[in-house]
Write a structure and sequence with these properties.
This protein is an alpha+beta fold. It has 3 helices and 2 strands.
Length: 128
């Protein structure tokens, strides 16, 4: 006497999976865990960052590409105590520009931005 057993494929695969008799037929590639690169600049001109931004132009379909390249060490100067001297140099340049063309600075004389409290590219995780 023959027995007809009917079952859904999902049920059969579930039973095989519970017994450890089912697996992917193809070998799966296991990728090693990705380690985020750590970039460190200890002096100027060692590490640079860049960005390209498209800005709207004066007419439709007209764009300007703004290319920005930054020396990553400049923000780190805050931590090395050089920020004050950099701030004085920037103020001297702004003062010279104001002396030559005061009409370009309508509200008042220009001032460099205030020093930030913290400067991070990728802020490290906070540990308890």
């Amino acid at each position: 006497m023959k027995a007809n057993i009917t079952a859904r494929f999902a049920g059969m695969y579930r039973l095989l999976e519970q017994r450890g008799e089912s697996r992917e037929r193809r070998d799966q590639l296991v990728h090693p865990p990705y380690q985020k690169p750590e970039l460190l600049a200890t002096a100027p001109n060692q590490l640079w960052s860049w960005d390209i931004t498209k800005l709207l132009g004066p007419a439709k379909w007209a764009y300007f590409c703004l290319y920005v390249i930054l020396d990553v060490f400049t923000p780190a100067m805050v931590h090395y105590g050089q920020a004050e001297s950099v701030l004085r140099q920037r103020q001297a340049v702004l003062d010279a520009a104001y002396q030559l063309h005061p009409e370009r600075f309508v509200p008042s004389a220009p001032k460099p931005p205030a020093l930030p409290n913290e400067v991070w590219i990728d802020k490290p995780p906070q540990h308890p």
